C-alpha cells in the first residue's frame, strides 16, 4: 500500500473519531421557564345592599304634662286651672324589628334608609292635685295612677363611616335623621276621686340618631351587624281632653342594642375578595 493510501485511510479514521467529540461539544441552549405570576385585581367598591335588624331598647321620657280646668268647667271656661306635670313617668323596655336598603359608595362610606317598628311599650305615670286645679278639693287631694301603651314607626336616612377591616371585622360610626310616628293608646286615669279614659293621640315628630358598632363577614356577600344606637324623638300630643287634657309628652331618649344581617349585591363590600389573574410568561432561551 502506498504512503498516499495509508495517509488517506488515517485521515478518514481520524475524522470519524473526532466527530463524536465535536458533537458532544455542541450543547443545546437551556430553556428557562419563569414561574407563573399571580396578579390581584383590586375590588371595585360600590353597590346596593339590603338589611334586616332586631333590637332591644329602653326609652326614657323627658317629661309629660296636661292641661287642667277648674271644676265644673271645661276647655276655655276660664276656671281655676293651668298646666300640670306628671309626678312620675316610666316606659318599659321592649323590642323592635326593622329593614332597610342602602348603597356602599366606597370602602369607607355607605348610606341607607331604614324603617323600624317599635312594639308596644307600657307606660305608667302618676299625678297629684291639691284641689286648686279642678281635681278633688283642698281637703281631699287628687292622686291618680295613669296607664297607656306607646308604639312607633321610626324612619331614618343614615350615613356611616367604616373604619377599616381586620380579619373580616369592620368597626363603624354613623348618624341618622328623619321622623318618628308615635302612637299612644288610650290613657287610663285611675284616681281616688274617679276613673276616666283619655283617647290616645298619634302624630309624626322629628327624630335623629347616633350609632356605633361593627360588622363581621359571614360570606363574601353577607355580614352580621351588631351595635348601639341612641335616638332622640321630639315631643308631641299624648292624649285628648276628658275632664282634663289634652296631654303632651316632651319626647324620648332611647338606648338601643341592635343586631342584624346585611346582604351586599355583587360582593362590593369589605367582604369581597380581590380577583386574581395568573400570568404565564413565554419560555426564555439563554445564550
Automatic annotation (TrEMBL):
Cross-referenced InterPro entries, in alphabetical order? Beta-barrel_OMP, OMP/PagP_B-barrel
Q: For the Outer membrane protein beta-barrel domain, which residue ranges apply?
A: 45-265
Q: Name one Pfam family in it.
A: OMP_b-brl
Signal peptide location: 1-23
Instruction: Print the keywords alphabetically.
Output: Signal
Name of the featured protein: Opacity protein-like surface antigen
- Origin organism is Aquamicrobium lusatiense
Q: What is the lineage of its organism?
A: Bacteria, Pseudomonadati, Pseudomonadota, Alphaproteobacteria, Hyphomicrobiales
Amino acid at each position: 500500500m502506498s504512503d498516499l493510501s495509508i495517509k488517506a485511510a488515517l485521515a478518514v479514521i481520524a475524522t470519524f473519531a473526532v466527530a463524536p467529540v465535536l458533537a458532544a461539544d455542541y450543547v443545546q441552549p437551556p430553556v428557562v421557564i419563569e414561574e407563573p405570576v399571580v396578579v390581584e385585581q383590586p375590588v371595585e367598591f360600590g353597590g346596593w345592599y339590603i338589611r334586616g335588624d332586631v333590637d332591644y331598647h329602653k326609652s326614657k321620657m323627658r317629661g309629660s304634662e296636661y292641661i287642667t280646668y277648674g271644676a265644673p268647667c271645661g276647655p276655655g271656661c276660664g276656671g281655676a286651672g293651668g298646666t300640670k306635670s306628671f309626678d312620675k313617668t316610666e316606659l318599659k323596655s321592649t323590642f323592635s324589628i326593622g329593614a332597610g336598603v342602602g348603597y356602599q359608595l366606597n370602602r369607607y362610606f355607605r348610606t341607607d334608609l331604614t324603617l323600624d317598628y317599635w312594639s308596644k311599650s307600657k307606660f305608667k305615670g302618676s299625678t297629684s292635685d291639691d284641689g286648686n286645679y279642678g281635681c278633688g278639693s283642698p281637703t281631699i287631694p287628687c292622686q291618680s295612677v295613669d296607664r297607656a301603651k306607646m308604639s312607633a314607626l321610626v324612619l331614618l336616612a343614615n350615613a356611616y363611616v367604616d373604619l377599616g377591616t381586620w380579619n373580616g371585622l369592620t368597626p363603624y360610626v354613623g348618624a341618622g335623621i328623619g321622623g318618628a310616628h308615635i302612637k299612644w293608646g288610650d290613657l287610663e286615669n285611675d284616681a281616688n276621686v274617679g276613673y276616666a279614659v283619655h283617647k290616645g293621640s298619634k302624630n309624626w315628630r322629628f327624630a335623629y340618631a347616633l350609632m356605633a358598632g361593627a360588622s363581621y363577614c359571614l360570606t363574601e356577600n353577607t355580614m352580621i351587624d351588631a351595635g348601639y344606637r341612641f335616638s332622640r324623638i321630639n315631643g308631641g300630643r299624648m292624649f285628648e281632653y276628658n275632664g282634663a287634657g289634652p296631654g303632651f309628652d316632651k319626647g324620648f331618649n332611647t338606648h338601643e342594642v341592635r343586631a342584624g344581617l346585611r346582604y351586599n349585591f355583587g360582593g362590593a363590600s369589605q367582604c369581597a375578595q380581590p380577583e386574581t389573574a395568573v400570568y404565564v410568561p413565554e419560555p426564555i432561551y439563554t445564550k
